[in-house]
Amino acid sequence: MTLPRLARLLITLCATAGFITALAYWWLDNKTHELIGCAVLVLVITHTIINRRRFARYFTAPLTRRKLMFFLINVSMVLGLLIVATTGIAISQSVFLGWIDWQAAAPYPLHYTAAYWVAVLMGMHLGMNWNVITQWFRPYAQALPEILVTRLKWLFIAAILMLGIAGVVKLNLAAKLTNQPTLDLWDFSKQTPQFYLYWSALLGLAGVATRKLLK
């Protein structure tokens, strides 16, 4: 893998891991949450700048279903990130030094609901760029027997589907996306790895579903 491709892969992985970590607000202190959020925003902007030429191709004629989906998914994700960023500043304890009751602030529900939608859209974005992602690992796959690569691929997809569906239930995603009040709090003292596993699989599930819609 060339250095530029490795850098792109690391930026994507760090942005995704950082965003999932930021979702674990009750595991972090507020300052750490805000610093991670800022870092993710910088990584997303960097990712966009690096890939600007490839993204620009999707906004040229003729209009296809893939281009339309790309436009809708990415514009929605950008709007979601803007909502997360602006509401995050509005309720920030670091910026406003406790001048407002951040838990009672109106932007707070909008902040975390938008964040959950952005997570799903990030998964869909990965699905839109499935071919680009697989190109990073193709040189290694070529060194293995084709039958083994095929079986590993389907095993990986099956694991994503099963864990992703389990994640929808375990993380109570429907309630989070619709801003429904719940009493469930994740036990980070015992289930931190599971939190990352389910969220990663959930993003993968959104990616696989998006990939399927493109066929």
UniProtKB/TrEMBL annotation:
The chain crosses the membrane at residues 7-28, 34-50, 71-94, 114-133, 154-175, 195-214. The keyword Transmembrane helix applies. This is DUF4405 domain-containing protein. The keyword Transmembrane applies. Keywords: Membrane, Transmembrane, Transmembrane helix.
